[in-house]
Specification:
Helix content is about 45%, strand content about 10%. It is α+β, with helices and mostly antiparallel strands. Strands 2-1-5-3-4 form a 5-stranded mixed beta sheet. Strands 6-7 form a two-stranded antiparallel sheet. Strand 6 and strand 7 form a beta hairpin. Helix 11 crosses helix 14. The termini are far apart. The structure holds FE2/S2 (inorganic) cluster. FE2/S2 (inorganic) cluster (FES) binds next to loops.
C-alpha cells in the first residue's frame, strides 16, 4: 500500500523558528501502523527524524501524536484506517498543548507537573494493622481511572488548556479521582476542597468531551471529573462559583422547566457580589440586545413551562436515584 506522510519537523538547535513539513511517499503493508510507517521513514529515508516510542503495544504511552489533526497512539493506529483521500495522506504532528523538543517529541514536564499537583498517592489516616481489603465494587469503579497509561492524548486535545495553562487538565484530574474515590484514602474531603477551590480545578472543565474521544484506554477523563464534582457537592463543598452555577442551573430547571438565564450570573457569583455583577453588566446588556437573554426572562415573575409538574417529577426521581446510588 502506497501512503504519503507529511511530517512536522522542528529542531530549535538548528535555529529553526517554526515547524516545517517533510513529505515522504512510502510503500507499507496493509496492516502497518502509523508507528511502523514512521520507523520505515526513519530507518530508510531520513535518519534525522525524531520520535518517541518504546513498547509498540499501546502500553507505555510514549507514542501519542496528532495524525490528520487528531491525537492517536501511533503504535495502535493503522495507517490505512486514518489515511485521507486517494493519495492516502497522513499529516503527522507532535501533540498539542506541550512545547516541542524536536520533530514529534514533546516536553511533557507540564503534564507531570499537573499530575504531581494532585498528590498522586494514597494518604491513609492510620497505618492499617493488616491488609486493607477493598470492596470489589469500589475497585471496579476505579478501574477506568487506573487504566491511564499517561500518554498525554487527553491533555493534547483539551481546549481549556489551550487558553488556560493553570487548568489541571483531564489526565491529572482523572488521577485525582483514582485517589479521592479510593476507600483506603483518608483525605477525601481535603482533596475535594482543594480541587474545588484551586485555580484550574474541577469546575473549569467545559465538558467538551474531547478527552473522552481521544483516550486510547477508555479512561473517560471527563466522566471522572464529573464524578469528582458530584462527590464535592455531596460532601457539602459548594462555596465556589462552579458548584453554585450547577445548583442554580438545576434549581432553574426544577422551578421553571427551562434555564433562567437571568438568574445564572447572580446565582453563580453571589447575589451580593455587587462589583462582580456590575463588571458583567455590559455583557448582559449585549446578550439582551442580540436576543440571547429574552427580556421577559429578566422579570422575576415569569412563569414555568406548561407541564412543569412532569419536569419536577422526573427531576425529583433522578435526585432520589442519585441519593440511593451514593449510599
Ligand atoms: S509505543 Fe508504547 S504506547 Fe505506543
Amino acid at each position: 500500500m502506497q501512503i504519503r506522510l507529511k511530517v512536522s519537523r522542528y529542531n530549535p538547535a538548528d535555529g529553526q523558528q517554526a515547524a516545517r513539513y517533510s513529505e515522504y511517499s512510502i510503500d507499507v503493508a496493509e496492516s502497518a501502523t502509523v508507528l511502523d510507517s514512521l520507523l520505515q521513514v526513519r530507518d530508510y529515508e531520513d535518519g534525522t527524524l525524531a520520535l518517541r516510542y518504546s513498547c509498540r503495544s499501546a502500553i507505555c504511552g510514549s507514542c501519542a501524536m496528532r495524525v490528520n489533526g487528531r491525537v492517536h497512539l501511533a503504535c495502535k493506529t493503522k495507517a490505512a484506517a486514518v489515511a485521507r483521500g486517494d493519495s492516502r495522506e497522513l499529516v503527522i504532528e507532535p501533540m498539542g498543548n506541550m512545547p516541542v523538543i524536536k520533530d514529534l517529541v514533546t516536553d511533557m514536564e507540564l503534564y507531570w507537573a499537573k499530575v504531581r499537583q494532585i498528590t498522586p498517592w494514597l494518604l491513609p489516616v492510620t497505618q492499617p494493622e493488616r491488609e486493607f481489603l477493598v470492596p470489589h465494587a469500589a475497585m471496579r469503579d476505579l478501574s477506568n481511572a487506573m487504566n491511564c497509561i499517561h500518554c498525554g492524548a487527553c491533555v493534547s486535545a483539551c481546549p481549556v488548556l489551550e487558553v488556560d495553562k493553570s487548568f489541571i487538565a483531564p489526565a491529572a484530574l482523572a488521577k485525582a479521582y483514582r485517589f479521592a474515590g479510593d476507600p483506603r484514602d483518608g483525605h477525601h474531603q481535603e482533596r475535594l476542597k482543594e480541587l474545588s477551590s484551586v485555580a484550574g480545578g474541577i469546575w473549569d472543565c467545559t465538558r467538551c468531551n474531547m478527552c473522552v474521544e481521544v483516550c486510547p484506554k477508555d479512561v473517560r477523563p471527563m466522566d471522572r471529573i464529573m464524578q469528582l464534582r458530584e462527590m464535592a457537592v455531596e460532601a457539602g463543598i459548594t462555596g465556589n462559583i462552579g458548584a453554585r452555577h450547577t445548583n442554580t442551573f438545576a434549581g432553574s430547571v426544577r422551578r421553571l422547566g427551562r434555564l433562567d438565564e437571568a438568574s445564572m450570573l447572580p446565582g453563580s457569583v453571589g447575589f451580593w457580589n455587587v462589583p462582580r455583577l456590575l463588571s458583567e453588566l455590559p455583557g448582559g446588556l449585549r446578550m439582551l440586545r442580540v436576543g440571547k437573554l429574552p427580556w421577559t426572562h429578566a422579570l422575576p415573575w415569569h412563569k414555568p413551562i406548561a407541564g412543569i409538574k412532569h419536569v419536577r417529577r422526573i427531576f425529583d426521581s433522578v435526585r432520589k436515584q442519585q441519593k440511593e446510588a451514593s449510599k
